[in-house]
Design brief:
With 115 residues, the protein is mostly helical. It is built from five helices and no strands. The chain has two domains: 42 residues; 72 residues, no CATH class. Helix 3 packs antiparallel against helix 5.
C-alpha cells in the first residue's frame, strides 16, 4: 500500500509545469538565504571572520563570473578504470562551487595557530 502512495505522489510532482517548480525553487532558496543573513546579522564580526566569509563567497561566486573555471581542474585519460572513477568524483566535487566554498571556509576557520 505504501508503494502505491509513492506512485501517486510522484505523479503529482511530474504533472506540475516547469515554471511552477522553478518558482518554488526560487522561493525555497530565497528563504534559505534570508535565514542565513539573519543568522549572520547577529554575529559580532571580527576582521578574521570577515576575511573568511569574503574568501568563501569569492570562491563560490567564481562559477557565476567564469563558468568553465572549475571544469578542467583534473584530467585523467589513462586506462585504469579506478583512477578514472576517482578523477570523476574529484571533478564533481571541484565543479560544485558551494562545496569548494564550504571547504575553503572550514580550512580558513581552523584555529591551528592558537593551539
Amino acid at each position: 500500500m505504501l508503494m502505491g502512495f509513492f506512485g501517486k505522489f510522484a505523479a503529482v510532482w511530474t504533472a506540475l509545469p516547469a515554471p511552477v517548480l522553478g518558482g518554488a525553487q526560487v522561493f525555497l532558496y530565497s528563504t534559505i538565504v534570508v535565514a542565513g543573513l539573519r543568522v549572520l546579522a547577529f554575529l559580532d564580526w571580527t576582521r578574521r571572520e570577515r576575511f573568511i566569509l569574503t574568501c568563501s563567497f569569492a570562491i563560490g561566486l567564481i562559477d557565476i563570473v567564469q563558468p568553465a573555471w572549475f571544469s578542467q581542474i583534473l584530467d585523467y585519460s589513462g586506462a585504469k578504470v579506478h583512477l578514472q572513477g576517482f578523477e570523476t568524483g574529484l571533478n564533481l566535487i571541484v565543479q560544485t562551487p558551494f562545496i569548494i566554498s564550504a571547504v575553503i571556509g572550514v580550512l580558513l576557520n581552523l584555529d591551528v595557530a592558537r593551539r
